[in-house]
């Protein structure tokens, strides 16, 4: 090794890092730390991770109760608002992303789910039948990514939880655990889906099949604390001499020698810089590769600052174009969250989540068992059951919406100056979704089960609109990128969302198995029935983000606006990959963290061993 790589180090100051490493990883988040752990496992390859945030032991990160402490702590989050959303009455939306070692896995709500098999087969389909991006190929990486510890037997029995360990692994340092308590209303509300004909029920959340199911929590079941990329990967690598991490450091540029990535420059966070380098900047050389893992919002920014992106955008920021790659920062997607509010007036199943606030005896008991042995309701994050439903199951007009989607003039829904390759990629995605809207293999609607009297979150799992994340050309080095969800820009999104909300109403209000609970609709109100009324309601209320930014450095063929190839290498550049949520060409029909871990595990193999041969596929 280089002389000073004698002990693993976490550096607070950029001046202390070595001059060169085999691999440099930009961003110590979910994907970055996973890849760093795997690449240093053999004790040989030297790796530097450069992270904007700090190592933090804050209770906001470790606490599982409620699942929201991390996302409420602004010291752990970037401070970004979207541009005003023209279709949402000019509302701006808070863009949440973790700014700490562990990245967004340190602040997320800990819901541990995957998309369906078709979601991952769709990724490969854009490359043709020989692609190694398939559900079958990714399943071993899902298994490597997480350590599944089944729920306690008594809780499993009393709540009727089902699971199947064959879809899981048990070696990772990142845990998929379960709380030691479930509210009895959760099982009742799972069962209530049986009141609607045609509901699919699924045995295990990891099986790749849509339906109603139970899912675990990113939680270390022994410590009853968040399990995330820092605990599962950084802490594991921390005593290796070949692993270095520098915190409080913002990567400003990938150094390119011609079109070969040879290193990076970074500056201390907070130091103003009129360009990629200044007096406080540090340059480090990568002997083998630079791996960009700055997440869906910041990976496109780092590429654009480095001269990799759409020529027109870069020249308006006075950045010399090294590779004209129009897809960088395009194809931006996130899961829209819909707001409808139901309250059961006669919910007689207790204890319920509301009792934690309304029933002093119950909340005292909850506090006591938590204090005694970290058990009880306070070990629940956001809950463990939800419905993930295909479109034909929730809507009678799936076929007509699918036909309209297939025959749309797709280019009308992207920004006017969009590159033809990006348009072609969008069209390919919409045609794939037109097929998926008609079948039962892709989930479009997610209803989270609350277990109590108040209704849970409602999510559109496959938005059709596409946004952009681009550098702010007026001061690209000292500002956050401009985040534009372009919410509802494809008008069919409003129709799909209206049907998701109509179904939500049906589940609560017109379902024999929920009738006795006597739901009241607080929002939008029963007078909202037509598509026009739903659209108006959505314009006022929809949030285009469930904090799952993706797609901005899409893994697609270059002629479909792709930024990286199937080996996650940036087109036109040698020695540079992107590994994070930004490579997803389309969102999976589920919260994104587990998929990011699986992608990172697969990427580590691609980096170490190259493309899998046909026999392994
Ligand atoms: C509030 C919130 C709630 C969520 N809830 C869930 C959930 O319940 N379940 C689920 O599955 N998913 C959830 N997600 C999504 C999931 O956590 C993310 O999709 C996933 O963690 C993204 O991983 P990543 O590696 O792409 O990016 P990140 O984990 O965000 O990592 C990117 C890292 O790069 C660093 N970085 C950025 N720019 C630079 C730079 N220029 N220089 C140096 N470092 C840089 C960042 O600080 C960060 O640490 C949630 C996300 C958020 C924010």
From TrEMBL:
Q: Identify the cofactor(s).
A: FAD
Q: Where is the Glucose-methanol-choline oxidoreductase C-terminal domain?
A: 463-600
**This protein's superkingdom?**
Eukaryota
A Pfam family matched in the record: GMC_oxred_N
Q: Which UniProt keywords apply?
A: FAD, Flavoprotein, Signal
What GO terms are given for molecular function? flavin adenine dinucleotide binding; oxidoreductase activity, acting on CH-OH group of donors
**Which parts of the sequence bind FAD?**
100, 251
GO BP, sorted A to Z: secondary metabolite biosynthetic process
Q: Does the record's keyword annotation contain Iron?
A: no
Residues annotated as domain Glucose-methanol-choline oxidoreductase N-terminal: 21-336
InterPro entries in UniProt: FAD/NAD-bd_sf, GMC_OxRdtase, GMC_OxRdtase_N, GMC_OxRtase_C
Family under the similarity heading: Belongs to the GMC oxidoreductase family.
Protein name in UniProt? Uncharacterized protein
The species this protein was found in: Achaetomium macrosporum
């Amino acid at each position: 090794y280089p002389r000073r790589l004698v002990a693993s180090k976490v550096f607070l100051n950029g001046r202390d890092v070595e001059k060169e490493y085999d691999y440099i990883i930009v961003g110590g988040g979910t994907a970055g730390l996973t890849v760093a752990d795997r690449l240093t496992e053999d004790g040989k390859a030297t790796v530097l991770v450069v992270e904007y945030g700090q190592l933090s032991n804050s209770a906001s990160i470790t606490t599982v109760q409620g699942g929201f402490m991390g996302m409420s702590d602004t010291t752990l989050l970037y401070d970004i608002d979207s541009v005003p959303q023209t279709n949402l009455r000019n509302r701006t939306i808070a863009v949440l992303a973790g700014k700490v070692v562990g990245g967004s896995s340190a602040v997320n709500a800990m819901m541990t789910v995957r998309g369906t098999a078709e979601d991952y087969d769709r990724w490969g389909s854009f490359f043709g039948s020989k692609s190694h991006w398939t559900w079958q190929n990714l399943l071993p990486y899902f298994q490597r990514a997480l350590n599944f510890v089944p729920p306690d037997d008594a809780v499993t029995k009393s709540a009727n939880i089902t699971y199947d360990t064959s879809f899981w692994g048990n070696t990772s340092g990142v845990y998929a655990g379960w709380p030691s308590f479930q509210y009895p209303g959760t099982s009742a509300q799972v069962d209530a889906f049986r009141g609607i004909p045609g509901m699919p029920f699924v045995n295990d959340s990891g099986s790749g099949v849509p339906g109603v199911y139970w899912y675990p929590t990113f939680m270390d079941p022994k410590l009853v604390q968040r399990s995330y990329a820092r605990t599962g990967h950084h802490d594991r690598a921390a005593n290796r001499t070949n692993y270095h991490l520098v915190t409080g450091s913002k990567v400003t540029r990938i150094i390119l020698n011609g079109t070969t990535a040879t290193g990076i420059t970074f500056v201390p966070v907070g130091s103003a810089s009129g360009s990629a380098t200044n007096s406080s900047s540090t340059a480090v050389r990568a002997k083998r590769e630079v791996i960009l893992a700055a997440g869906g919002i910041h990976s496109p920014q780092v590429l654009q600052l480095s001269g990799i992106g759409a020529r027109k955008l870069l020249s308006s920021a006075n950045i010399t174009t090294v590779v004209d790659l129009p897809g960088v920062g395009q194809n931006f997607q996130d899961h829209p969250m819909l707001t409808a509010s139901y309250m059961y007036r006669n919910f007689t199943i207790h204890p319920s989540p509301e009792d934690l606030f309304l029933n002093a005896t119950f909340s005292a008991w909850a506090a006591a068992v938590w204090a005694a042995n970290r058990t009880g309701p306070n070990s629940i994050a956001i809950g463990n059951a939800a419905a993930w439903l295909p479109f034909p199951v929730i809507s009678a007009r799936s076929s007509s919406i699918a036909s309209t989607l297939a025959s749309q003039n797709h280019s009308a829904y992207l920004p006017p100056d969009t590159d033809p390759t990006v348009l072609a990629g969008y069209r390919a995605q919409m045609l794939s979704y037109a097929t998926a809207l008609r079948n039962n293999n892709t989930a479009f609607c997610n209803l989270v089960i609350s277990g109590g009297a108040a209704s849970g979150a409602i999510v559109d799992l496959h938005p059709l609109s596409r946004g952009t994340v681009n550098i702010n050309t007026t001061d690209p080095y000292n500002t956050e990128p401009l985040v534009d969800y372009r919410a509802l820009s494809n008008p069919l999104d409003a129709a799909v969302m209206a049907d998701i909300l109509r179904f939500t109403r049906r589940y609560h209000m017109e379902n024999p198995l929920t009738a006795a609970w006597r739901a009241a609709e607080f929002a939008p109100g029963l007078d909202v029935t037509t598509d026009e009324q739903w659209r108006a309601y959505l314009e006022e209320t929809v949030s285009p983000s469930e904090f799952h930014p993706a797609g901005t450095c899409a893994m697609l063929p270059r002629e479909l606006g792709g930024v990286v190839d199937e080996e996650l290498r940036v087109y036109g550049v040698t020695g540079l990959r992107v590994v994070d949520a930004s490579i997803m060409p389309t969102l999976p029909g589920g919260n994104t963290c587990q998929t990011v871990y699986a992608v990172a595990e697969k990427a580590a193999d691609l980096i170490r061993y190259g493309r899998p041969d046909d026999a392994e596929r």
